[in-house]
Amino acid sequence: MNIGIFSDTYFPQINGVATSIRTLAHGLEKKGHNVYIFTPWDPRTPEIDEPNVFRIPSMPFLFAKSFRAGLLCPPHLWKKIYSLNLDIIHTQTEFSLGFLGKFISTTQGIPLVHTYHTMYEDYVHYIAGGHIISPEMARDFSKAFCNVTTDVIVPTKKTEDLLLSYGVTTPISIIPTGIDTTHFSRDNFSREEILELRHSYGLEEDTPVVLSLGRVAKEKSIDLVMEAMPSLLNKLPTAKMVVVGEGPEKDNLALLARSLGIEEHVIFTGGKPWTEIGKYYQLGNVFCSASVTETQGLTFAESMAAGVPVVAKNDPCMNNIVTHNLTGLLFENKDDLPELLYQVLTDENLQNRLSQAGMETMKELSVETFCTSVESLYDNILQSGERPEKVAAPIIPLVLGVRAAKRITAVPRRLVRNSLQHSQQLTKILPNIYKNK
């Protein structure tokens, strides 16, 4: 099969979506398929890029500067896309590259599979503090996009239930994202390597470390973990909290640590390259997250694959990963968190038991299972003969630059109305998103 993946985020950005796409692409390639990734250009893109990754001219996303929004596709990439004879288009975003994928699907009659990664109603605070886009509009937006696809992939039952509550009628397939456990295995790193990394951050070999790893953002609720530290330090004064990652909440968390009087016990490492993430998991004696906005929780799975015990806020996305007191510890009330952290950090038997059970569980969430499931979905769609009806639409030539982008601001609505056939609600949302650009 020739498979085109369209995403607004990909490496060098470090997040769960980028990881999921790379995992899927490499797994499908091993099965003999041709996979082509289309994503916005990022200024951090290495000079030598992956051969089947095509970068679309982009600009910073207005409300989150670390993300990029694709502009129009240049003529040579239009020609390239059409020359690939794609059998399946797989979108991983509902925004700029998602529109491009849907446009090609509609005009070429190619089946469109969509993976729903993000519960947008929990992210509307990024758009002008929540004053432009409401949670209800975000729900309508998700419903509108999902309902113009052939099939929607979700990682958990929680996400399926969410989309059904929105009114999504497109078939939904639950396919958990696979984890390349070998990338996170503690066997990849010597004791000396980990000790050297610890020393670089002023940590001793026996320093108890509470680890947070991932995007440093409000919806990740890192503040709740930090607020548990004073109580933990009363019983375990040598404990430290290490926050690995970048994001808009970093400065606020630093201020919170200072206000709690624990700034000397909190270490921010900043973002780290994907190739080093496995080693950074080994900094932690326990991985802790209070986030309830995850669709699957890949960082929990990665931590377990790394042999680091997990303490997490109870949430339906944990159901296929963490079982309380078996593969990790779950809490309902934040007041219970300090005691749970203390137990894991001081009870070596508990720590070892959770670590071993976590690693065994992650073997079942394999990359092979993930890629085989997606491959089977593609095959079933193609064998069914189901194709979107072709809708004639003009190919819009690209004139690079922001000035050109401003001249074509009407295009997204026209494509949505005439080609994508989105719902009326979506056409109301889009002008709000674009009106300040």
Description:
- Helix 1 links the parallel strand 1 and strand 2.
- Helix 12 packs across helix 14 and helix 17 packs antiparallel against helix 18.
- This protein has two domains: 244 residues, 3-Layer(aba) Sandwich (Rossmann fold), CATH 3.40.50.2000; 184 residues, Rossmann fold (3-Layer(aba) Sandwich), CATH 3.40.50.
- It is built from 18 helices and 15 strands.
- The strands form three sheets. A seven-stranded parallel sheet has the order 3-2-1-6-7-8-9, with helices on both faces. It has a six-stranded parallel sheet with strand order 12-11-10-13-14-15, with helices on both faces.
- Helices cover 42% and strands 16% of the residues.
- It has 437 residues and is α/β, with parallel strands linked by helices.
- The longest helix is centred in the C-terminal third of the chain and has 18 residues.
- The radius of gyration is 22 Å and the shape is elongated.
Overall mean pLDDT: 85
Radius of gyration: 22 Å
| CATH class identity of the largest domain | Alpha Beta
Q: Give the percentage of residues in beta strands.
A: 15-25%
Quaternary form = single chain
- Level-2 CATH architecture of the largest domain: 3-Layer(aba) Sandwich
Biggest β-sheet: strands ordered side by side in the sheet: 3-2-1-6-7-8-9
Shape: elongated
Number of helices: 18
**Number of folding domains?**
2
Q: Which structural class matches the secondary elements?
A: alpha/beta
Q: Could you list the spans in which at least 5 consecutive residues all have pLDDT below 50?
A: 395-437
Percent of residues in helices: 40-55%
* Beta strand count: 15
Major pleated sheet: 7 strands, parallel
CATH superfamily of the largest domain: Glycogen Phosphorylase B
How far apart are the termini?
Answer: 38 Å
CATH fold group of the largest domain? Rossmann fold
